[in-house]
Design a protein that fits this description.
Layout: H1 14-18, H2 21-30, E1 33-37, E2 42-46, H3 49-55, E3 61-62, H4 71-75, H5 81-84, H6 94-103, H7 108-112, H8 115-129, E4 134-136, H9 137-142, H10 144-154, H11 161-172, H12 181-208, H13 214-225, H14 230-243, H15 246-260, H16 263-271, H17 276-286, E5 296-298, E6 302-304, E7 307-309, E8 314-317, H18 319-322, H19 357-374, E9 379-380, E10 403-405
Parallel strand pairs: 2-8
Antiparallel strand pairs: 1-2, 3-5, 4-10, 5-8, 6-7, 9-10
Helix pairs in contact: 8-10, 8-19, 11-12, 12-14, 15-17, 15-19
Keywords: Antibiotic biosynthesis, Heme, Iron, Metal-binding, Monooxygenase, NADP, Oxidoreductase
Pfam family, one: p450
Family: Belongs to the cytochrome P450 family.
């Protein structure tokens, strides 16, 4: 790899986790296609908006991580294939086949029909919080909200929600405990194994006794059309479970922090709640939960900004850097809920554009809107620089804890 002007060590510090945007600005300005060595794997980071959008649709940058070179071993670890060999890590026509089977469940009309149930879940969670005048908002609200919604959509029994949530949180918070790296890897691998075993058994149970849920619908599609293998059913269920709550939970946490640290924008939203749908888009652009798009592999030598990316290289498209590109957005580092900035890359771009975008928007709109209405005088429970975040090496940008206070 050629030398990067920004030492890789800067990308994996507490300071970077707290505020990566100055580093992203340096990447865009000094080396917009930057080779970086990470604790998990080496990659090239693409950080300018136009390059990012092109890369997200570049057929030479493959999403198929499960070919003969077994790139997934470098990225996800030795036990990951049972959970990660899904449409997120596939190219057309395989990706097209898998996505088509799931897409009907996420059609906008069907998602809007879920509004009453999402509203009920939001209010049930807040009912437990309101009397106390304080809460740990990630644990009490941001994480359980999308987890309950996607679990019900998939058909995971209510009695299993806590177990499943426990496994997913071990995976989500990897690297944040005081355990040794070896202990951390062992804990993640055990959680992956337990979750794979559980989902395999759940698919088998749904096959024996179908219900009105998404897993049963996928099984029916498999049986009628012969288009989903048994392993694909399990990995697709994992993708929908994990992607269906992880990024939404992190986004709600990030959005609340952004609003509480920009009181003029919070006041604006409280006075003009009709701004909420567009505010969701601006908050996602401003501090999205997925800083770097899921990995791509160069199937041949490619060139961006005069930099040669050799065949076989892992490529990361830095969505949060692209969404702050001053060549594309005016005053991108300013949170402005009134400004119509046009499309951002928070949900990706191209054929891998987020399948659950309608559900994520619905949960964020109802969740954040109801939260602000029902928790008056909402404020952070600790100074912003004391918030505990996911480690910088995590693929997600989010909070481990979000203590808040409000008028009970």
């Amino acid at each position: 790899m050629t030398e990067c002007p920004i030492p890789a060590s800067e990308l994996y510090t507490d300071e970077f986790a707290a505020d990566p945007y100055p580093t992203f600005a340096r990447l865009r300005a000094e080396q917009p296609v930057c080779p970086v060595s990470s604790p998990r794997f080496d990659s090239y980071l693409i950080s300018r908006f136009d390059d990012a959008r092109t890369a997200l649709t570049d057929p030479r940058l493959s999403k198929d991580l499960y070919g003969p070179q077994e790139h997934y071993l470098r990225i996800f670890g030795p036990n990951s294939a049972g959970l990660n060999k899904n449409m997120l890590n596939a190219d057309p026509p395989e990706h097209t086949r898998l996505r088509r089977l799931v897409s009907q469940a996420f059609a906008p009309r069907r998602i809007e029909a879920m509004q009453p149930r999402v509203t009920q879940i939001v209010n049930d969670l807040l009912d437990k919080i309101v009397p106390h005048g304080e809460a740990e908002l990630m644990r009490d609200f941001a994480i359980p909200l999308p987890m309950l919604v996607i679990s019900e959509l998939l058909g995971i029994p209510a009695t299993d929600h806590d177990r499943v949530l426990g496994w997913t949180q071990v995976i989500r918070t990897s690297g944040s405990s005081r355990r040794s790296p070896e202990q951390e890897r062992a804990a993640v691998q055990e959680a992956q194994a337990q979750l794979h075993r559980y989902l395999t058994e759940l698919v088998q149970a749904k096959r024996a006794q179908p219900a009105d849920d998404l897993i049963s619908a996928l099984i029916s599609a498999c049986d009628q059309q012969g288009t989903l293998s048994e392993p694909e059913l399990v990995t697709t269920t994992f993708l929908l479970l994990f992607a269906g709550h992880q990024t939404t939970a992190d986004f709600i946490g990030n959005a609340v922090v952004a609003l509480l640290t920009h009181p003029d924008q919070l006041d604006l939203l409280l006075r003009q709640p009709a701004l909420l749908p567009s505010a969701i888009e601006e908050l996602l652009r401003f501090d999205g939960p997925l800083p770097v798009a899921s990995p791509r592999i160069a199937t041949e030598d490619v060139e961006y900004q005069g930099v040669r990316i050799p065949r076989g290289s892992i490529v990361g498209v830095v969505l949060n850097a692209a969404n702050h590109d001053p060549e594309h957005f005016t005053a991108p580092d300013r949170l402005d809920l009134r400004q119509d900035r046009g499309p951002h890359l928070g949900f990706g771009y191209g054929v891998h554009y987020c399948l659950g975008v309608s559900l994520a928007r619905l949960e964020a709109r109802i969740g954040i809107g109801t939260l602000l209405r029902r928790l008056p005088e909402l404020r952070l429970g600790v100074p912003v620089d004391e918030l505990r975040r996911l480690p910088a090496a995590s693929p997600f940008r989010g909070l481990l804890e979000l203590p808040v206070r409000f008028a009970a």
